[in-house]
Write a structure and sequence with these properties.
Layout lengths: L1 H21 L4 H15 L5 H26 L5 H21 L5 H21 L12 H18 L4 H10 L4 H26 L10 E2 L2 E2 H22 L4 H20 L2
Antiparallel strand pairs: 1-2
Membrane topology: Multi-pass membrane protein
Keywords: Cell membrane, Membrane, Transmembrane, Transmembrane helix
GO cellular component, one term: plasma membrane
């Protein structure tokens, strides 16, 4: 149990740092690591579902810590958060609930493909049209619903999709990261509820699991990430984000490849 808990704590440190730094929620790291760890420590056919559901639950805590840190720099665009949140909540709840209809291999492959796409986007760093602006309320609601559903389904917290979406519409990188951290909270709230409901009647769940949330992993990760996420968030406003995005993009490719053969 000590080795298992140590893995969860280390995962929380790494995921919390990048969640605060890049506004990504941490799930891109948490899900592959938990999926691998659960193969050794748990005996259940719901490995990927538990990894994703647990990831969503941890993002609830990580997001709060990141928001507090980013708010000190007055970097969060609350006007954007307010317009995206209704769609995010709807999509997030749907994504978490619908996960029960996918088998573990399918979920793992969906996650891997999305992670690869995000990694390529980070590495290429394509620039938007300088005249592009955020669309109106209706289009933002559709975008929020899509982001919430996909993010919840694969447990990535929303920031990995929200940040590129905002940057593509010429929101500054630092504001996009901070705002994405804030948007991760409604994604995680709806997604966690969806995974609780979706896994409520699942059979062959391990001890200490409620629905698709495995509490030992949850507590190990949040204890570490809660204290580390503010450090990453503070460094967002000091370090060269472009270089860090490239390093993180390479890490995502490695983790995505691993998910194809979890």
């Amino acid at each position: 149990m000590l080795i298992e808990l140590s893995i969860y704590l280390l995962t929380g440190v790494i995921a919390g740092f990048f969640a605060g730094l890049l506004g990504i929620g941490g799930g891109l790291i948490i899900v592959p690591v938990l999926t691998t760890a659960f193969v050794y420590f748990l005996h259940t056919p719901h490995l990927v579902h538990l990894a994703i559901g647990t990831s969503m639950a941890t993002i609830l805590v990580t997001a709060v810590a990141s928001i507090r840190a980013h708010q000190k720099h007055d970097a969060i665009r609350w006007d954007i958060v307010k317009t995206l949140t209704p769609g995010i909540l709807l999509g997030g709840l749907f994504g978490g609930w619908v996960s029960q209809f996918f088998n573990a291999n399918t979920l793992a492959q969906i996650f891997a493909v999305i992670e690869l796409v995000i990694a390529i986007k980070m590495l290429t760093d394509a620039q938007p049209n300088p005249h592009r602006e955020l669309p109106g309320l209706a289009a933002r609601s559709v975008a929020g619903t899509f982001i919430g559903a996909i993010s919840s389904l694969v447990g990535i917290g929303g920031g990995a999709l929200n940040t590129p979406y905002m940057v593509w519409h010429n929101v500054s990188v630092r504001q996009a990261i901070a705002t994405s951290a804030a948007c991760s909270l409604p994604v995680a709230t709806a997604g966690t509820l969806g995974f609780l409901i979706g896994g409520w009647n699942a059979t062959d769940l391990p001890a200490y699991a409620t629905g698709y949330i495995y509490w030992p992993a949850f507590f190990g990760i949040v204890v570490a990430s809660f204290f580390v996420a503010p450090i990453g968030a503070a460094l967002t406003h000091r370090l060269p984000v472009k270089l860090l995005k490239r390093v993180f993009g390479i890490l995502l490719i490695i983790l995505a490849i691993k998910m194809f053969w979890f």
